[in-house]
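Look over this record as teaching material.
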Amino acid sequence: MSMIDDSEYVDCDIQRWQNMMKETYANLSPFDPTSIDDLRRVTAIVRAPWTEGGPSMTRIEEKFVGDFKTRIRIYYPIDGKICPALLYIHGGGYTIFSLDTHDRLMREYAGRAKVVVIGVDYSLSPEVKYPRAINEIVSIVQWLRKQNSLELGIDLNRIAIGGDSAGANLTIATNLQLRILNQPVVNAQLLNYGVYDRVRPQSNSYIRYEGPKYRLNADEMKFFQNNYIRNEEDFDDPLVCPLHADLHGLPPSFLTIAECDILADENRAMAEALRKADVEVEEHVYHGVTHSFLEAVRIAKISNRALDDASAWLMKQLYQSNERYSSKIEKD
C-alpha cells in the first residue's frame, strides 16, 4: 500500500467548489487583475451564486451608524424576541468583498445560532488605510451600546464579534482598541481562518500550501497587506499584527482553522497565544479544507459541520443555561 501525505488531501466537496469557481472565472471577459475596480467587480460575480439559498430571515434592515456613518445590515432570524447579536466583519484582504458576498454566511450564523447578525460595510483599502476600518467598527460597537434593546430587538448585554480572514484580524483589533480606550470588550469573538501577522514565507503552512491547488498564496497576501498599511512600520503595530499583541483580557474565542491554508500556522499560533493570555479558547482544525471554505456551505458537508460547531459555541456563550431566547419584545 503506497503512503500518501494525508495533510495535503483536499476534501472532495471543497475541490468541487474550487473547480466551479475557476470555471466561472474562465467564462468571464478578460479583466485587469491589477485594477482594484475590476478585481472587486469580478470577485463579486464569482461569489454571487454561493450566496443563494440558506436560512430565511424574518426581516433585514440597513442603517448608517456611528461617527463615520458606516452602513450596517441587520439580519433578524426571529420576530418578537430580543436576541443576542453577532457583529460580523467580512473578509477579502481589506480590499475586496462586501456585505453581499457574505450575505449567506451571515444568514447561516443568524439562523443556526438564533442571533441577530449585524454585517459591517467598513471602508476598503487602498482608498483608506489602517486604522480607518478599526475605528469604524469600534464606533459601531459604541453606537450599539447606546441603543434601546426593545427598539433594536437586541440584547445589548450579549454581543459577540466575528469575521473571516482580514475580518478576523479586524475582530481582534477591535477588541484590543476597545481595551486601549478603557471600554469593555464584547462577550465573545469568532475567528475564521484569520490573518494575524505579516507574510510568513518560511512557515510550514506557507511552504506546504503555497500553490494553485490551494486558494490563497503569499503574493496575494502581500498585495492585500500593502493595500491596508500606511508604511512598513505599521507591521510593528499589534493592531495590524495581533499575534504580537498583549491578548490578556480578550473574550472567549472560537477559532475555525482551515488545514490546507497558508495561514494555518499563524492561526494555531494565535490559539496558543490566546491560551497563554488566559483567554478561553475553542479551536477546530478542519481537515482537507482551504481558505474561505465556509463559503462552500451550499455543497460542502464539512462547511456545514464547521458552521454548526461555531453556532453551537455562540449559543453557549450568548445564551444563559437552557434559555433559547431572551425576553419577548412587548407589543404596543
Summary: DSSP finds ten helices and eight strands in the chain. Confidence is low (pLDDT under 50) at residues 321-332.
